[in-house]
Amino acid sequence: PRLAAVCALVHDNPADPRTLAALGAVTGVGERTLSRLFRAEFGMTFPQWRTQSRLYHALRMLADGLPVTTVAHRCGWSSASAFIDVFRRSFGCTPGAHQRRSQGPAN
Question: pTM for the complete prediction?
Fold first, then answer.
């Protein structure tokens, strides 16, 4: 439940820039406890998990046809280029290329 509360906050607002300590303060859980829970439950650190969560949201927004820059900012990246870099490293293509492939040829 402690971890779920923090995950829900991030999931509901992927652009939320708060640190794990700040999120813990809101949910009443210590940063070290949350850090251990992220590693135990997900096998990754909080920053790694947050990036995965943001990428999930980005994929959904791109599928809805939102512009790459809009997606980048709504998902919490400081710039479109930072988003594009993370996206390319994660998926092997740029968000624009992914969006074009997933939408198929124009009729």
Answer: 0.91
